[in-house]
Specification:
By secondary structure, the protein is of the alpha/beta class. α7 crosses α9. It has three domains: 47 residues; 137 residues, Peptidoglycan recognition protein-like (Lysozyme-like); 49 residues, no CATH class. A five-stranded mixed beta sheet has the order 3-2-4-1-5, with helices on both faces.
Length: 272
Amino acid sequence: MNNRFTLLVFITTVFFSYSCSESKYAATNKTYRKQVKEYAKLLREYPVKDSAGLSYAADWVGTTNLSMRRANFVIIHHTAQNSCEQTLRTFTLPRTQVSAHYVICKDGTVHHMLNDLLRAHHAGVSKWGNTTDLNSSSIGIELDNNGFELFPEAQMNSLLLLLDRLKKAYTIPGANFIGHGDIAPTRKNDPNWRFPWKQLSEKGFGYWYDDATNVMIPEGFNHLQALRVVGFDTKDTNAAIVGFKRHWLQDTTKGLNQEQMKVLYQLSKKYQ
């Protein structure tokens, strides 16, 4: 009898907790479902409609060979807010026009806010290599961090598990795990310089450099070209240098000394 009572209490508690968590964002969840239904309706239109305004053949033929578009990049952010709850609210206010696919709290709790196959508004004006619309080709992950903190172990453990799943699910190249500050160095600095990129690279998420102490930089080495090879937009050279140093050297100062040049040279060879 005690076992049955305990089981009943457990089920009731789980149901109550689930109901409470659902009700808190019931209105915005309803909006999410409504928007998804509208997109589904658009995909079901026959014949296919678009905005090109061309004169199409009267006899419409739909291809049988298709699939959903999938991400090729993962962009890591810090929230620059003071709590996970604050970020969840920000991402459910239509006026903010910002979002991400995932939010990971300090305690490791993962909120999957948007289907991976849909486009989140997390990258903004950005560029990496020849890719300029990162929102359309990436998955955005926000880490609960105000920008001046370390990243807790529980949070990092959840991130690594998530990255492993995403990499396998969408065959994302190891080089394509990058930060918001990499793709938008003139505007952003996240995740902050405390983020353990080296730890990620050891798991196959992003590239790192080897010991560059004895590296010989070839004559005529062009550091701006090397930054472009890595992926940086060098229109603002100072911002690109700061972005590189923040990610790979945990340094936020301007300029490059000889030892830092060695690191950049060696790193650029990995991206070639």
